[in-house]
UniProtKB/TrEMBL annotation:
GO CC terms in record: cytoplasm
Organism: Plectus sambesii
Family note: Belongs to the GST superfamily. Omega family.
Molecular functions per Gene Ontology: glutathione dehydrogenase (ascorbate) activity; glutathione transferase activity; methylarsonate reductase activity
InterPro entries xref list: Glutathione-S-Trfase_C-like, Glutathione-S-Trfase_C_sf, Glutathione_S-Trfase, Glutathione_S-Trfase_N, GST_C, GST_omega, GST_Omega/HSP26, Thioredoxin-like_sf
Keyword terms: Oxidoreductase
EC number: 1.20.4.2, 1.8.5.1
Substrates-to-products reaction catalysed: methylarsonate + 2 glutathione + H(+) = methylarsonous acid + glutathione disulfide + H2O; L-dehydroascorbate + 2 glutathione = glutathione disulfide + L-ascorbate; RX + glutathione = an S-substituted glutathione + a halide anion + H(+)
Name listed for the protein in its UniProt record: Glutathione-dependent dehydroascorbate reductase
Keyword Oxidoreductase assigned: yes
Cited PANTHER family: GLUTATHIONE S-TRANSFERASE OMEGA (PTHR43968:SF6), PTHR43968
Record flagged with keyword Membrane: no
Source superkingdom: Eukaryota
Amino acid sequence: MANFEGLNSITLNPGDELPPLAAGRMRLYNMRFCPFANRSVLYISKKKLPVEVINVNLKEKPDWFVQRNPLGKVPMIEHDGKVVFESLIVNEYLDELFPETAILPTDPFERAQQKILVERLSSIQAAFFAFMMNKDGDYTQAIESMEKALANAESLLVDDFYGGKTTGYADFAVWPIFERFPAITLNPKIGVKEFPGAKYPKLSAYIERMKQQPEVKAVMKPVELHEKFLKSAWIEKNPDYNLGI
């Protein structure tokens, strides 16, 4: 996408030099497969903000990254000598910094409702990571958690999007997990053949609508690529940050 410079650039590792950041430019520190960083990538895509992207090795972090961000997590925004991190905080910061393209509603109650939705949809995230962290090969509980989370998400979807008639703050918080979840269908050991499945018609339609949004189409990755990365990170314990480049 035109407003991103380096979105799919090679990941920088310890010992790699950090390029200087020009005055007035905004930089996003990212990891190409991180669902939390993806929240801010989507936000920036929707807002059409010009950003320079630095992809970072999160397993072996460069010193210059940890010096800027003691938590060592992405996403992180840097501009004008200022640093902000944590995905939801970054997104709210971007709305405050660029109010002309604000995604959060201006009405305080509606803003609060979007934030509440993010909390109520958090079970989707927990269910996804239950599959990733499974150690014994029995996915029964993970599947039960997924079904409960999907039923909850289905009940909370009362319009075209969680943001209403257009994509909003809550959509960009939860979509990165929805984008990655179908990767479990590619693992025959799990036994889930489709996602989200016929039991969730509103979610199925929502996912198809999301895939057609310009800000989503511009940055989403094929499910097969997500599956390969998840395998490298969670099974092989050697994340391949440069897959697909």
